[in-house]
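Re-run with default settings, no changes from the original entry. Doing this only to confirm the output is reproducible before filing.
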Amino acid sequence: MRGNACGSGAATMSCFSKVLRASAEYKTISNAIREHRLPAGVTGVSPIHKAHLVHSLCEDEGCRAVLIVADEAEGSRLVENLNAMKGGALLYPARDWSLRPSQGQSRDYEQQRLGVLGHMLEGEYRVVVCSVEAAVQLTLPPEELYTRTVTLKAGESCTPGSVVEALLAAGYVRSETVDGIGQFAQRGGIIDFFPPDGSFPLRLEFWGDTIDTIAHFEIESQRRTDQLQSAKITPALEILFDSQELLADKIEAHCASLRGKAAKARASLLADVDSLRAGAHLSSLDRYLNLAYDSPATILDYAEDAMLFISDTGKVKERAAASASLFHEEIKELFEDGILCRGLDTFTFGWGE
């Protein structure tokens, strides 16, 4: 093979990127970014070349990016293509809101979202790809995620009680043993917990008021695996309150503000207050998003210094309108059933606002 032929891996991408950067069209886009002549549009680009274009622009401009697509199927393909080029691409999924009282709600997507937001807060990403539905969904503000994230280091002074307080503040649920994300367990001077951005749960072992060791462990065998120098407690829920009592107080205050035809909703809310004061965890915590934060955020609040790309603007707008219409009908039904009411009905920001 000749020395100037395209090889594989990083060398291949370097070769292809060199060809792309030599094109007049690419130079036009690059200059528009550097001269702040935005937004700029590009047409006639295939899916693989969209990934190639985003990758090269991020590399050349030395910045990160958020890429909004119409649906998650397209997003998954783009993440795969981007990671084949260099890595650092993450998929931020849309979440399924748990607004009705129910048992056994899966929080897999919520936990994946929190993992991505944590990486964004730390700057540990190259490109985040999300559907327009995920992009407009409200979540906890960056400052809230930062405040409720705690770094633990082996050898530092720290009491088991303070770690438990941090886990509760981050939305973890106490259990006998840890077998899923968002759980923690304490046995004397040993605390186990499973953060949303981890592949394995973590075990802290204390010697008095000092963290002696930090390690991953296997759920099935409960055996420790690799030992670590540090670990992080990161939020396990997107909607967090400092305590059950505080949430109960906020719901009661909101009930007092309701007027008119809100008897059914008031009864439902007060039933939740009784459950909270009895020490129960609410399965429909999502409906209290508007009581949790004065200014809920979206993924874009985590990406202030990143470039924003939209793949097929027309298709994205069409999908955004369809999703908004469908969700509006769901909200209307929840109002009729007394599940939601005025002041507890905002879960997205409108596309284009």
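The two ends are 54 Å apart (CA to CA). Residues 67 and 295 are 24 Å apart (CA to CA).
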